[in-house]
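Researcher: I'd like a structural prediction for the single chain below. Treat it as a standalone chain; there are no partners to consider.
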Amino acid sequence: MRMLSVFLAAIFLVSANLDAQTLKSGLWKGQLLRADGHHIVFNFDVSYHNRRPVIRIHNAQERLEVRQINLKGDSVFIEMPFFEASFALELQADGSLRGNWIKGTAGNNLVMPFMAKYGKEPRFLPGAPPRFRVSGKWELEIIRPNGTTRPAIAELEQKGSRLTGTILTPTGDYRYLDGIVKGDSLFLSTFNGSHVYFISAGIKDENTISGGGIYAGPTTVEKLSGRRNDSAGLSREAFAIHVKPGAGPLDFRFPDLDGNMVGIRDERFQNKVVIIQLMGSWCPNCMDETNFLSAYYKKNFTRGLEIISLAYEYSTDVERSRKSLKKLQQRFAVTYPMLITGVTSSDTLRTEKTLPQLSPIKAFPSLIFIGRDGGVKKVHSGFYGPATGDQYTNFIKEFEDTVESLLKD
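Model: Treating it as a single chain, here is the predicted structure.
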């Protein structure tokens, strides 16, 4: 395989000898390979527009479009539209693809072997007919590798053997999970460039799953069990953000993606309702929230509404942060300021360095609602996206009710 630096240098070049038959049009099955055999599988399709390849990654009803694809000879480089994620691949003699998935992190790059095969092979091969129906809400117990537990809820929908849904935590969701029920077992997976999960569990009866595991990335394993509970809920109190007693109005000033300094006290934001989004380009739930906010802003900015994103990235490298955030800005046509705080998401002093008027920031994304008088009126921690169904609908209603009340105030 050619050196990765050669691939990186060619990302934005249009190959002069692009062969429209290099990648076959139609359905493919990809696998991110784990050493323990719990591979993370997903389907994608390839089509061509103006002789340029387009990939769509399948996760339940979502189709994630990828257009940054460079082909030259037997080399294929794919850059994901979000996150610092890419594939460096070689086309094999049998038409399959092999190589690596590479993702930027706060430390060294994460690398996983990857292979993909052309053909109409489903995500999970069919097996014995389902013995149980698992549609509904499940209260989960997830045990981390260090032995501690974390609360979560699964919301699942089963049609025949097909299984879709998501997992909710106190601050977000796993987005679109896609899979199958075979006999007394369930299998789910997802891949969007950052979320990389394979989930399996045994179904003991209509109300109990056990012996399960959540396999994330190349090595992480968490134990999983659960019981059906239609009234299950999750508390966000531990992740709530508050204004410190006696603190004055927020006061910050950071560069936008073009290097212009923008501050909350600029004339543009005076006597306006301002929503501040605390986010990072590494965060899949932030991606979904940005999609929602961008569309909402375009419909309502003339009413006296402004939005500002404050980005907490993997590193303090401004150019690296700008490049990653630019993907979000361009994909969702964001027209409000996206500011680079220069403080990492893992910095234990991130709040003191950026928004010292607040109690510690514990969840990304979070929203801060500021009234026309400049005061903080509400803070909403976490985000449940479109994969969560009613939870997403409830978020939209709460969000719109809050904005409407502030605009009328």
